Amino acid sequence: MTLDEASLTALAALGDELRRRMFEFVRTEHRPVTREEVAAQVGISRKLAAFHLDKLVTAGLLQAHYAPPAGIRKVGRWPKTYVPAVCGITVSIPERRYEMLADILTEAVVTEAPGERAHQSALRIAADRGRAVGTAERERMRPGRLGAERGLSLAAETLERFGYEPQRAAAMLVRLRNCPFHPLAAKAPELVCGINCAFLAGYLEGLGSDNTTAVLAPTPGMCCVELRGVGHQDRPAQGDAACGR
């Protein structure tokens, strides 16, 4: 599983109750605040406040600047002030990729072609996104001609970073133990699973893995898509369907 390292660092910094209080005070002031102000608010010394504030800066939660407090003209050295950093904390176990799904759906709406249904537009954009990821990976790795097993190995490496938790169930079969779009996939399976399938099929195409295919194969507790090498099964099992490429 791949977790957001920056978010984990931020959460670790906020694990201290005193730092959480200091962070919330800086956030709710909506202006630069000094170490002295923070120290007075939480009832600690200026030196201890400076230590914890700088920890929050290192964690990416605050930004520090030298500037005069509001309404004070410059006299001598400006004090160090703190403001919230522009950041978001995202930690989910197992990993989710709602922002990717939202981005696909947004682009599908704004690029919908005349006569194209919204669902078709979403599948087109998902396939394009997957193709772009696969192409970038191929250019980075330069793997040459890919056989099915090598193609599945490269796919598993990439999809681990996307939160799919791939499992090599057989030489010619990769199962995906996590759906990055769950529980949205449970609410709208035809749409979300279709987008997922189109993304993965596009990825394999961009990667140049011609001897592999993405197959819609819903399994309880797993992602709705499997990656199979040509020859793993000549035909999808009953209820399975190859994703269009």
Describe the structure.
By secondary structure, the protein is α+β, with helices and mostly antiparallel strands. It folds into two domains: 5-84, Winged helix-like DNA-binding domain superfamily/Winged helix DNA-binding domain (Arc Repressor Mutant, subunit A, Orthogonal Bundle), CATH 1.10.10.10; 98-242, Muramoyl-pentapeptide Carboxypeptidase, domain 2 (2-Layer Sandwich). Helices cover 48% and strands 13% of the residues. It is built from nine helices and eight strands. The chain has helices at 5-13, 17-29, 35-42, 46-58, 98-110, 118-141, 148-161, 184-187, 189-207, and strands at residues 33-34, 62-66, 80-84, 166-170, 173-176, 212-216, 225-229, 241-242. The strands form two sheets. Strands 4-5-7-6-8 form a five-stranded antiparallel β-sheet, covered by helices on one side. Strands 1-3-2 form a three-stranded antiparallel β-sheet. β4 (166-170) and β5 form a beta hairpin. α3 crosses α4 (46-58). The longest helix is centred in the middle third of the chain and has 24 residues, at 118-141. It is elongated and about 70 Å long. The model has no long low-confidence stretch (mean pLDDT 85).
